[in-house]
Fold this protein.
Amino acid sequence: MDLDLLREFYGLEIRVSANLRTPGMQRAFTNVRRERFLGPGPWLIGAPGGAAPEYWETEDADPAHVYHNVVIAIDPKRNLNNGQPAAVGLWIDALGLEPGDRALHVGCGTGYYSAIIADVVGAGGHVWAAEVDPELAERSRQNLHDISYVEVHCADGWEFDPGIMDAIFINAGATHPNRRWLERLAPHGRLVVPLTFTMPGAPHGTGIVLKITRTDQGYDARFISMVGIFSLTSGRDEDWNQRLLKAIQKRQWAEVRSIRLDEHEPDETCFCHGPGLCVSKRANGAAPTPPDGAPPQP
């Protein structure tokens, strides 16, 4: 089988499956050698079915096996995978990456999707990749050593702070956005973050993926997709976990329009409201909802 042709088809498959809009994303999926981020084959391929897939083993170590829209085991004992390319590609695409962008990837695993991001931003940009697991961080460092504009850090992604970013991709579930991530966005910077709730003892969370954009008026926010994903351990708070669970049960996530940092009393425009931060259904710049019986603001 012609491997170069298969990689081209793979890039096209992901573009179509994820409806990719960012120039360079299809090229990145074609260019980046997925097998180098997986360890030696044969590989365990995850059959469709959710957060804990059943795996089947490829019959040999032919790289052709990995150029499909499937998850591939990194550590099957932990159900830790190189994620489904169309799903992760959808989230990266939402960042609207451009050549020259400064990008942060939290939860980089073995580095495959950091390499995808790097291919899009190019040598004029810079990528910071953070991974809390020392073994995975070292693998990522080795896998990305030949890309001079990628830095790999073994660090807690909730605390890691490389400075002002054009794009931030959080590849793990938090109960709420970190205010530091919002503050570190450059003007018109974009943040993609899974907001998830968990049940006791569960390493995976369930929830929604939001895109947050810094604007002159504040922080716009839009729902991208549902998600099941490993948790960002330091990015979890039990009060927020319960707030988010109740909010998601109302099934109004598609109405989210902004992140509010102003102090205000919770009202019907609040999707998920907590101290100092609100995931809101109110658009930036919209007049506040008047109290019952009060005339609307002009």
Notes: The first strand starts at residue 44 and ends at 46. The two ends are 67 Å apart (CA to CA). Residues 292-298 have pLDDT under 50 and may be disordered. The chain has seven helices and 14 strands.
